[in-house]
Amino acid sequence: MRLRIDLAYDGTQFHGWARQADQRTVQGEVEAAIAKVLRLDSSDVCLTVAGRTDAGVHASGQVCHIDVDDDVLNRAIGHMHDVSGTQALFRRIRRIVPDDITIYSVEEAVHGFDARFSASDRVYVYRVADELAHADPRLRNMVLRIDDTLDVEAMNEAVSSTIGLHDFGSFALPNPGGTTIREVKFARWQRVPDMNLTPMNIYHGGADSLDTQAVGADPRTDESAYEIEFAESGLLTFTIIADAFARNMVRSLVGASIAVGRGKKTVQWFADKVAHPQREGLTGPAPACGLTLERVNYPEDGLLEERANAIRAVRSLD
Amino acid sequence: MRLRIDLAYDGTQFHGWARQADQRTVQGEVEAAIAKVLRLDSSDVCLTVAGRTDAGVHASGQVCHIDVDDDVLNRAIGHMHDVSGTQALFRRIRRIVPDDITIYSVEEAVHGFDARFSASDRVYVYRVADELAHADPRLRNMVLRIDDTLDVEAMNEAVSSTIGLHDFGSFALPNPGGTTIREVKFARWQRVPDMNLTPMNIYHGGADSLDTQAVGADPRTDESAYEIEFAESGLLTFTIIADAFARNMVRSLVGASIAVGRGKKTVQWFADKVAHPQREGLTGPAPACGLTLERVNYPEDGLLEERANAIRAVRSLD
């Protein structure tokens, strides 16, 4: 049986998704949890993931799959009652994984589903606290702080050249045996709007309240004085959606956009890099902390297998 | 000259606001930064704060003040040009403080301003990820995770009894020489609405795109498939606003609400604790990580001094 696992993680303390000997990785932790519950050797558990994130990159909507025999899966049930092996596995592994990983669901995958090859697109968001944003220290693990004002209009002019089908060789690590051709569906720098976390309806005290007597009438009748905003309000975000991403592609596009936003590079320089793929003059990738894989989309159930076969055919392992 | 300092911090790695020998505290770090810039001994720098947060509690809108002689303040200018001592101090200390503190502004305080005694109210928010919320691991330092569903209606029935002027002795550490009487203006558990981080307008590819040719028509025309929500969407929040708070008061109210929400205590038990202040049978305070001091409000400039004098008179040092 093939299981689809939806999960999220804070990438700060991981050496990325992919399992590596002697390194703390997301794949390593999740596989170890599954192996423990199913009484398997870790080397017999192998996850296939939608987006292999690099060291320090986060995911709020990652998807992976695993193939497991029914009789092995049922080992998860143990003394539980009225649950399937799949549900039992979910309930157990979500409590075993470390607290920088959250398992959202484990479900039987529909026919033809492949977490990696069936995916129709991936959505990444890079968050920046520039001079105009309040750099909330509670979010410092997921936001890049820049003590500078950026020319957002120029940055958007630059990234508009990425829309459509291009070879992103100028913005990606080399991919031996594969291509760096990808189709970008959306790429835009935007200011997060100021939004209220919760609605309010303030009690202003009775005429006889001690406070009012002691201090004089409270001048605050303006309820906006009590509004609490989402912590992400005011941040600058780069959202990019593509069928898939070449290695380092999002962070390199962000690094190059920021160079434009600071006036160190021109929009034309950026557009030329898109038009003429080359590795020379690569702008360094932006730091990993600002990047999150937000979601992975799949086509309708009936098209999953067709999609996976087509993608396997056109794209080498990358 | 009196300076008003607005700041924020992630409380996770601090032993609270208040300076303590041999402990990492917010006050200690900010005072050390100011002392360094003004070439003073740390013991000659003393901040007065609006809300003295406990160990592990965060602040996104903390306010404090400091009194400093003009000639000392001007030491901050050094080789800077065209800046006041106040602006120079701001620019320097914001770069010196550790990255779990953000200094938002340093400004000359208006006449009569006292960060602590002029404040008209404080706003705290406690964040919980219950079974209905997605526990985003990126926010785990600022959200309490509860693997349980809570009866939010019962919790709100309970906390409605706190509105108005009450002695919160059942929910506070003893306050020798002072009272635990406070006026609550708002207290409510609410589900954070699902809000889009940024608007989108997706490019679906041309008829001749490689992707379309290879894989068949992309079935995704529904743009909701690309929406990214604020990371706090779906969380359960407790917002409470009062003129001031007794020690441990918010976390004790949260702990008692959660006991009601889990069905372990009744609404009547909660209301009785509000009606009859007593220390017996205290419900433990909820963990510090979920709590943030969100903002501090002050009356109009002309009323600052009056307010401060009145509050000093009615409330002992607490």
From TrEMBL, chains A, B:
Q: Which UniProt keywords apply?
A: Isomerase, tRNA processing
Positions with a binding annotation for substrate: 124
The yes or no answer to whether the keyword Transmembrane is present is: no
Name the top EC class.
isomerase
Please name the InterPro entries in this protein's record. Answer: PsdUridine_synth_cat_dom_sf, PsdUridine_synth_TruA, PsdUridine_synth_TruA_a/b_dom, PsdUridine_synth_TruA_C, TruA/RsuA/RluB/E/F_N
**EC identifiers of the protein:** 5.4.99.12
Q: Active site located where?
A: 54
Q: Which reaction does it catalyse?
A: uridine(38/39/40) in tRNA = pseudouridine(38/39/40) in tRNA
Tell me which Gene Ontology terms the entry assigns under biological process: tRNA pseudouridine synthesis
Give the Gene3D superfamilies listed for this entry: Pseudouridine synthase I, catalytic domain, C-terminal subdomain, Pseudouridine synthase I, catalytic domain, N-terminal subdomain
The UniProt record lists the Pseudouridine synthase I TruA alpha/beta domain at 8-68, 158-299
Q: Name one Pfam family in it.
A: PseudoU_synth_1
GO molecular function list: RNA binding; tRNA pseudouridine(38-40) synthase activity
Enumerate the HAMAP family for this protein: TruA
Classification via PANTHER family: PSEUDOURIDYLATE SYNTHASE, TRNA PSEUDOURIDINE SYNTHASE-LIKE 1
Q: How does the record describe its quaternary structure?
A: Homodimer.
Family, per the entry? Answer: Belongs to the tRNA pseudouridine synthase TruA family.
Q: Could you tell me what this protein does?
A: Formation of pseudouridine at positions 38, 39 and 40 in the anticodon stem and loop of transfer RNAs.
Q: What is this protein called?
A: tRNA pseudouridine synthase A
Recorded source organism is Alloscardovia theropitheci
Q: Which gene encodes it?
A: truA
